[in-house]
Structures are given as structure tokens and as C-alpha cells.
Amino acid sequence: MKAGRITSGFWLVAALLALWELSARLHWVDSPNWPALSQVLAALFHDIASGELPPLIGGTLWRMGAGLAAGSVAGVVVGLAFCLAPVTRMLLAPAVELLRPIPVPAVIPPLVLFLGLDDPMKITVVALTAFFPVLTNTMQGVAAVEAEAIQMGRTFGVGPLRRAAFIVLPATLPYALAGVRVALGLSLVVAVVAEMIAGEAGIGHYLVMMQFAGRAPEMYATIILLSVLGYALNRGFVAVERRAIHWWFALGRQADG
Amino acid sequence: MAFLELDALGKFYPQPGGAPPARIMERVSLTVPEGEFLAVLGPSGCGKSTLLQMVAGLTTPSEGEARINGRAVAGPPPEAVYLFQQYNRSLLPWRNCRDNVAFATEHRLGRKPARAAADEQLAQVGLAGFGDHYPWQLSGGMQQRVAIARALAAEPALLLMDEPFSAVDALTRIQLQSLILDIWARRKLTVMLVTHDVEEAIFLADRIAVLTPRPSTIGEVIEVGLPRPRDAIATREAPRFLELRHHLLNRLLARDAA
Amino acid sequence: MRLRTLLPGLFVVAMIIAFLEFAVDAGMIRRALLPPPSATAEVLWELLSTGEFLPPLLSTLKLVFAGFFLGSAIGIGLGTAMGVSPAMYRLFEPLVELIRPIPKSALVPPLMLFLGIDDAMKITSVTLVVTFPVLLNTLQGVRGVDRVMLDAARTHGWGLGHTLWHMILPAALPFILAGMRVSLGLAMVLAVLSEMLAGQGGLGFLILDMQRSFQLRQMYAWLVILAVLGLLLNSIFLLAERRALFWQRR
Fold first, then answer.
1. Residue % of chain C over a pLDDT of 70
2. ipTM of the modeled complex
3. Are residues A26 and A42 in the same domain?
4. How far is C66 from chain A (nearest CA, A)?
5. What is d(CA B4, CA B26) in angstroms, rounded to the nearest whole number?
6. By CA distance, what is B106's nearest residue in A?
7. Looking at the complex, does the CB of residue A8 fall below 8 Å from at least one CB of chain C?
8. pTM, 2 dp
């Protein structure tokens, strides 16, 4: 599929990009909001080379990473607890399920009151976003652990904690990682959204500032940058995943539908 | 004293809505001397696996008890190891063969000695040099050999086998049966095998206990009386073998039809 | 029976609310951060009983529905076309792969420049975010249809339309619905976000606006209304999905 053959689709993309360039250059679309692709790319390189964007990227990635890590760990821990100690599930699942359907941007205003406009608030929002997919997948993973594998542990006299650590956890890992992969994509988006709504930091804030300032090339450059970042993060994660759970891929299984 | 005793074992499941409980099995009593190879033969769905799980301490009997060396089974007994039908589910796909075998003992011996012993066990089931392979890189028969090696690593006195060869092809099955007989003789194990395969039961066992359909109980116990060591081909052609096969098939099929 | 399993958990939720009430009352949490839940409940009751809650709710709902249906239609249509026709797949696959990683929420600012701050902009952004999960899932579902089934259709002499309607789409339905379930959540997110960024009305705008004007009881009341809306939409979709896929249960 990804062979180097040039298909009709490649020409479609090339034609659309050319149309973008020409429509701006030749003033077919005459609007300050419609810069040429080349101007956008020039703005992107300029803002990176001038050192304006890199620290913003770093800040956004830091908030994203911290929130993703916290949310993922919480998702795995709560997921394991819900499955291995059903009492916790009975007591806490309804509270969790009541929080789940709230659209994330809506929790930002109240969180601002408690945590302010800066990192703690944004990291919390990202963590909250990452938590749910990891929780759901972890619980699916525990449910999919083979009963025979656990009984096998019992017949050799392996205790419950060791069984949890050496049978349940590794068997659940592919599912949890698939959850983290979904959460990774959401985390970047939500980190940017939080920056757009509150505070004066990160790429999200820069994006909104460029919109207000009417600097269209910079605005589109930021969006391209975010797309590339999201794509690269996903690719990087998949590569790590393939190494960490190579056996899973060797079995040809899939954790997410 | 008998090594393994089943004393009026029974299993039933409560039904919702006050209906009488579903009786799977009742009054199963047997005595197995040390070193015997016992086969439990029965049609599908008669609760053979449940019986074996009760002996293995993986399922609690509803009535009666199993005793090993005079001690009642409550939880997996240290003397016994259970060999699963579904080797692909009981082997851990994230561990290579060596580490899978080592899993049986590493919690007692520590990782290093367990691994060293694992290579030894793999060699004994004809898998020398396969320690670094992952189970899913091997054929079904080889995977079941890994599971056997893992069972042996725990040095059990009692091996409980739940239709261990039903998921492999016919020729591999014959090879694995000979392997098991070989190991049984060398290690002086006591074996309780559960199967629906008449020929397998005759070929392997000293005695065969035949289960009736639900609620199942022991219908008869037959002495096989074929000489040992047994041969994969010649034993299957012995008059006694064919006589037993006729008798047992007749019995199982007639009961199935009824 | 299901209610009984829910009860302990709901009791815990009630205890948490009661504790918050007590904590605010005892001064453990500042009223400037969290008004007592009872005060929020009062405002909530007022909004509900006067019917004041309805216009903003409908305004948000309109965005979610319009974007959800448009995006689903595009996603299912294009996904099916790409799944059935290799030529369509070759034509659109690179474009889809190119647009897919663009964070749709980041497109709200440029969309505001072109479409203004009205419903057109908001519905467009919701539509964009809905389209891709539906498209990719439809594609996966359609391409995953069993070859044996397709061959069976051909031996029966079914035409493309008949095969599509009676075989391919039903077989792909579990995937399509799973994609739509994900998209429904994203539609809510984008609707609320675009209301916040291009504030004119709607639940998202009100929540942010009440916070900025320090009317916290109102803010929490609107938040509760939004949460209930999310819960309802999600539950309704799950119910519909389960009915549509009745044959899938083993």
C-alpha cells in the first residue's frame, strides 16, 4: 500500500496544493486570510528558526506528556482495581461514568478556579482526557485474560499478587497500550484546546493570538506544525508499541475495534 | 495407603428462581494407588474436566472430597500439576519457551536456577535448543511439549491431564502419547487423564473409569491388562486392545443414543 | 436488578455531594471556588422550571445534531465508496491521510476568519471532526466484509446496489456505529469549544461567560445541564446501537 507508486491520489493532493498556491498568488481568492502555501511554509520555517516556536512546542509537549502519563497510570490502576476488586467497581463506577460524558472543554472554566490558568490546570485537563480511554481498554484487557493462564498459575502454586504481576498485567498490556495510543492523540488536542481557552502559554495560545492579529500565514503554519507533531507522536508510539509487545503483533491480534 | 482418593465427589450448580440445582456429577468415588496411570473416559459434556478441576483444587466440589496422601484437597495441592487441553491459552505468549517453563518454579527457586532447569526439561521433551523460541513460533504439538516440560519442571507426584492431545493432529497425538508414557515410566508419576478418546485411554492407562452421562457417576472400572512397555503400533493391534475398544465404544455410543 | 447494582455507587455519589455541601459550609472549600451544591441546585431548579435552560440547550443540540449527521453522511458515503472501489481508494487515500492528523479543534480559528462566528462555522467544525472516525471505521468495515459472502452474492447474481444495501453495509454496521459513537463525543467537544471561542450563546459560551463574570452558581448549573445532555445523548446512542446490532450478541 505504501509502495512508492504514484497514484491518482498523489496527483489529487498535488493539484489541490497547487490550486491553493495559485489561487493566492494570482489573487483568485483575494483575502488577507488566504496566504499562499509557500508563504505559510516560509512563516513556519521562520518561526522555528527565529526560536519563537520551539519553546512553545516544548511547553505544550511537556503539559501533554505530564497529563498523559498521569491519566494513563490512573487509568491502568483504576481499571485493574475495578476488575480485580469488584467492590471498588461497585462503589466508584457510577461516579466515573457520570464524569465521562462531560465534553472536556467544559471542565476548563471550573478547573481554572481551583488550579489557575497555568500548568496544573492544563495538565489536569489532559490527564482527565487520557484517563477514560485507558480505563476502558484496561478493563477490556483484564476481561480478555485467558482463564487457563490464571488457573495455570494457581496449579503451580503461584500466589495472587504474583499472578497479577506476571499473568494479568502482561496480558492486559496490549489493550492498555492501545488505550494510551488513543489517549495520546486526544492529549495533544486537549492540551492545545486548554491553551486556546485559558492562559498565555503554548502553541494553542499562539494560534489564537495569530488569528486575532490577522497573521494568517503564522496561523496556518501553526496548524501544520500541530498536524506534523500529532502524526510523528503517533508514529513514534506505534514503533515503541511494536517493540514492547512484539508477541502481540506476532499473534496477529488487535486490541481496538 | 491409597495415594489419591475421590470420596463421593459431586458437583451441582444452583439455578435461578428456586429451580432444583443442575446436577453435573454425583457420588464419584475412586482410589488410585501411587504410580498408577488412570484414564477417566466419558462422552462430551459429562463433566470430565470438572472432575479433574476438583482434584486439582481449581473448583470446589459441592459434596464429598478429594484426598491426596490422606489430606483433603482445598486449593491447588503442591503434589499435583494440571496439564490443560488448550496449550495456546495456558502458555504465556510474551515469554519464550525457556521462561514459560521457568514460570513453574521461579517463584520458589528464583529466576536463574529456574531457567537453568527449564533448558533441562525442554531437552527431556525433545525440544533442546528451542528455549529462545516463542510458543507461537512452534507447531501445536511442540507447544504442547512445552506445556508438558513446564508441568514436569514443578516435579509433581501427580499429573492431571485434561484431554491434552485433542487439539493436535492424529500423528502428533500418537507421538505425544508415547512421550507421556515414557516420562510416566521414568519418573514414576501417578497420572489421572481425562479423555473422550477410547483408543487413547486404552493405549495409555492401567485402569479406565467410565463416566455415565449427566448427572455423571462412574459406570464401571476396567483393568486394561495390556503389557508394558507399550508400542505405538503393535499394542493397538493386540486382541485385548481391540476387545476393550469394542466394549468401550459400544458402551459410549449406546449411551449417547439413549 | 440493574438498579440494585447501581445503588451503592449512586450512594457514594450522594455522599460526595453531601460532603462538598458540608465542606463549603465549614469553610474547608472557599465559596469563591465552589458554591454549596444546594445553592447550585436552586439555580438549576430555577433554570429548569422557568424553561430558561431550553434555548441554549437547543442551540448546542442543533450544532451537535447538524454536524453529527452531516459528518456521518460524508464519512459513510466516502468510506463506502473507498471500500468498494479501488479507484476511489487510490484517489482519496492520500488526501484522507493528509487531513486526518490535523487537529480539528485547531481549525476553529481559521474557520472563524472565513465563516464568521455564526452557526455555519460551528457546524462546519463539528462536521469536520465527526467525518474522520466514521470514514475510517466505515472503510475498515467495508473492506473487512468476508470474501466468501461477496462471492456468494455474485453467484446469486446480485447487483452492486443490492449487495451494498443487503450485505456490505449490514456487515460493516458494527464498525460504522463504533465510529459514530466516538464521533458523537467529539461532536460535543467541538460544539462546546466553538461556542467558547466564538461566543454568542449555547452551553459552552454560558459556562465560560459565567465563570468570567464570577457567577459560579450559574456556571455549575449550566455545567450540570451539559453533563446530563452528554449522558443522555450517549445513552440513547448506545441503546440504538444495541438494537441495531441485535444479531451481534453471541
1. 98
2. 0.89
3. no
4. 17
5. 18
6. A158
7. yes
8. 0.87
